[in-house]
Amino acid sequence: MGLVGLQGAMMVEELVMAGAAAVGAGAVYLMAAARVVKQYERGVVFRLGRLRESVRGPGFTMVVPFLDRLTKVNMQIVTMPVPAQDGITRDNVTVRVDAVIYFKVIDAADALVRVEDYRFAVAQMAQTSLRSIIGKSELDDLLSNREQLNQGLELMIDSPAVGWGVQIDRVEIKDVSLPETMKRSMARQAEADRERRARVINADAELQASKKLAEAAGVMSDQPAALQLRLLQTVVAVAAEKNSTLVLPFPVELLRFLERAAPTPAPAAPTAAPAAPVDRAGTQGNTVTPEELALPPYDYESAAPVGSAEPGADGEEHHAAVTGSGATAAAEEEHGAADGGEPGAPGAT
């Protein structure tokens, strides 16, 4: 009886030990096979180096210990700065451009199988694409048209990245550095452009002001009282600024009123204009007096000059008298010159 009990106890002990060993082995297996994949990750399983078709999602998962290898891939958007790249634009300007790229993995298996290091590959592709876009663009585009350049840069990087299981979410050009000489030139150009626009605005303002002044002048010319009111407004404005003495002109309207109120003097009798001097015939500087040109009295009853032989001969007689007087004066001048006297003096008898 004692021997049977001893054997039974030994069997129970062996069973307990076997159970404990099994539990221990199961725990070790569970620890070796159990995997936890986070929400933003995906698990890619390789069994004996071969890719398993299924990609493990987030949560608890199991693999075969010593046969399977689970690789986790981050599916979040990655922000990667692109180192500054030196380049020459299409208009031969040396610039230094840096950018930032946002991308994410859309296929975990391709990101591990098709490329050795997808992060490094994306970074190198971004640098080469950035240098290419610099050479194809002008300086003005880099400075003012960045949105279009960002889209072009995104397409250039995204085309090869799709085969790597990577999607380019966004590309942004951060900064464009220019040489100091170019900065000064652009500053002078901007200043000249602002000055030109200021001059154009001032010219337009002067043109509009001139038109308004012309209209105001026309209104004031039609309404003389408006000019006086404007003068009073100006006087009030000037007097309000400083305590000074103002010298005001005499009102023009009062002068006009006095001119209209003054009696108009009677017009004076017209005076006969003096007769113009007439040159003597054949002489220089000697003139005929008005007495010599006087006409004889006219007889209105006989319609002929008094003392004339026949009507209508007064003109001929007057012409003969003038001619005779001129001849006498010429003879006197010649006689004086022959005697050695002054021209025009009567000769000695």
TrEMBL record:
Keywords: Membrane, Transmembrane, Transmembrane helix. The chain crosses the membrane at residues 15-37. Residues 265-349 are annotated as: Disordered. Residues 321-330 have a biased composition (Low complexity). Residues 32-190 form the Band domain. GO terms for cellular component: plasma membrane; side of membrane. InterPro entries: Band-7_stomatin-like, Band_7, Band_7/SPFH_dom_sf, Stomatin_HflK_fam. Residues 338-349 have a biased composition (Gly residues). Belongs to the band 7/mec-2 family. PANTHER family: AT06885P-RELATED, BAND 7 PROTEIN-RELATED. This is Band 7 domain-containing protein. It comes from Streptomyces finlayi.
